[in-house]
Design goal:
The protein is α/β, with parallel strands linked by helices. The protein has 3 domains: about 5-40; about 80-275, Glycosidases (TIM Barrel, Alpha-Beta Barrel); about 295-355, SH3 type barrels, CATH 2.30.30. It has 6 helices and 19 strands. The longest helix has 15 residues, at about 145-160. It is globular. The model is unreliable at about 40-65 and about 280-290 (pLDDT under 50).
């Protein structure tokens, strides 16, 4: 047995002075050196699980999988109105119960270039129950090469499940404007036509996201406020978005711990778009008679609230009314005081706790 003294390293080799080789430094592949050390010591530092090591840039010309158009979600196995996102942190999920709670799900399929270990299990369970879902990748792309690799692997990993859409989750400090641009372009190169970006609220300006918005079909922004599981206790985003993730502490039947819940804001894409049901009927629909607006308005002054299909909390969520918004009055005030409004060409309702006639 003899001792060697490490004198340096690079991306490939460990260099050392070896008493048995006095003329030139000894070198050994870093990976082999690590294996040797593992045999000599009781432990070896592991890579942080949440941040995978960067992958090498993929070879040019990686073939894209053949993608079918997203399957419309009608008839859907999901009968609720919540929009949730899930990952391995949700653990064992009872999807029979979840189906009664949600309108659709967004499932994490990638963590950097690596798969979420629960994705295939979740995806198969949702396909079996006809629960509509999109997919996302939590990105660690600090440059264009990493972004390209993550986007390619996201599509190739998920294409067989025919998800409704693909999302880049951008919230790490290392992510650059160019990486977000490359991720979007590579998703389209891989055949994904319905794409979105989850942009961290506190990094929106840092990413210069306004210059990137047009690359994506939709924008999804988290903004929590008190984060008490309800939208009433949440703070609306400072930027326009299609989806607003308003809490990470909601309770959803079928999931034992906390869950992220989002809502469609009404500032962009509709629920029908997310479910791929807009304009995809086999035969032309009968003309829909548009509601006639009243000369009165409904002013939202009591805080942010849901817009619902019925004048009560049992009505499905059609969007969000923000404090300071004004809507056309739909001409009806329900017996419980809820006010009808015209939202996206339809009669909807807001609670009189938040809105008043003006």
């Amino acid at each position: 047995m003899h001792f060697i003294t490490a004198i340096g390293f690079d991306d490939t080799y460990i260099y050392a002075n070896d008493p048995n080789s006095k003329t030139i430094p000894r070198k050994q592949a870093a990976s082999k050196f690590q294996k040797c050390m593992k045999r000599a010591f009781l432990f070896w530092p592991t890579v942080k699980e949440s941040e995978p090591e960067p992958e090498p840039e993929p070879s040019i010309g990686t073939p894209a999988p053949a993608l079918e158009p997203a399957t419309p979600a009608t008839p859907s196995g999901a009968t609720g109105d919540k929009i949730i996102d899930i990952s391995k942190w949700q653990g064992k999920i009872n999807f029979d119960k979840v189906a009664k709670e949600v309108a659709f799900v967004i499932a994490r399929a990638g963590v950097g270039s690596d798969p979420d270990p629960k994705f295939d299990e979740y995806a198969k369970a949702m396909k079996d129950r006809n629960i509509p879902f999109g997919v996302y990748c939590y990105s660690y792309a600090g440059d264009a090469a990493k972004a390209r690799d993550e986007a390619q692997k996201l599509v190739q990993r998920t294409a067989k499940y025919n998800p409704l859409f693909w999302v880049m989750d951008a919230e790490e400090a290392k992510i650059t404007t160019e990486a977000i641009r490359t991720f979007a372009n590579e998703l389209r190169n891989q055949g994904a036509e319905r794409i979105g970006c989850y942009c961290a609220h506190h990094r929106y300006k840092e990413y210069n996201y306004d210059s990137l918005r047009s690359l994506w079909n939709f924008t999804w922004i988290p903004c929590y406020g008190s984060n008490n599981g309800t939208i009433e206790g949440s703070k609306k985003p400072s930027y326009i978005c299609d989806l607003w993730q308003y809490t990470s502490t909601a309770k959803v039947a079928g999931i034992s711990g906390n869950c992220d819940v989002s809502v469609i804001t009404g500032q962009g894409k509709s629920l029908e778009w997310f479910l791929n049901n807009d304009g995809n009927t086999a035969t032309p629909s009968a003309p829909v008679e548009q509601p006639v607006a009243s000369t009165q308005k409904v002013f939202i002054s009591g805080g942010d609230c849901y817009i619902r299909s019925q004048p009560n909390t049992s009505g499905s969520i059609k969007g969000v009314a923000y404090s300071g918004d004004t809507f056309e009055y739909g001409g009806e005030t329900a017996s419980n005081g809820w006010l009808s409004i015209i939202h996206n060409g339809q009669i909807c309702y807001v609670s009189n706790k938040y809105g008043r006639l003006v």
